[in-house]
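Hi F.,

I've been meaning to write this up properly since the lab meeting, where we talked about keeping a consistent format for the predictions we share between groups. The idea is simple: the sequence comes first, exactly as it goes in, then the structure tokens exactly as they come out, then a line or two of notes. No screenshots and no reformatting. I'm using this chain as the first example so we have something concrete to point to.
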Amino acid sequence: MFFEGERLNERDGLYRALSREERHAATGHWVDRAPDMEADAIAVAWDIVLGPT
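Output, unedited:
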């Protein structure tokens, strides 16, 4: 799993081997926190595929 905006993504060999579409699928994207989350918590959305597509 990779994180959106992480500067080290571009240096990661696995990340660099992925196509643009694969990178998007493998990258967690920041989302707004739910109101009941702790003040310093962060929220990331990431879709997981459990079978072949």
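Notes:
The mean pLDDT is 91.
The chain has one domain: 2-45.

If this format works for you, I'll send the rest the same way.

G.
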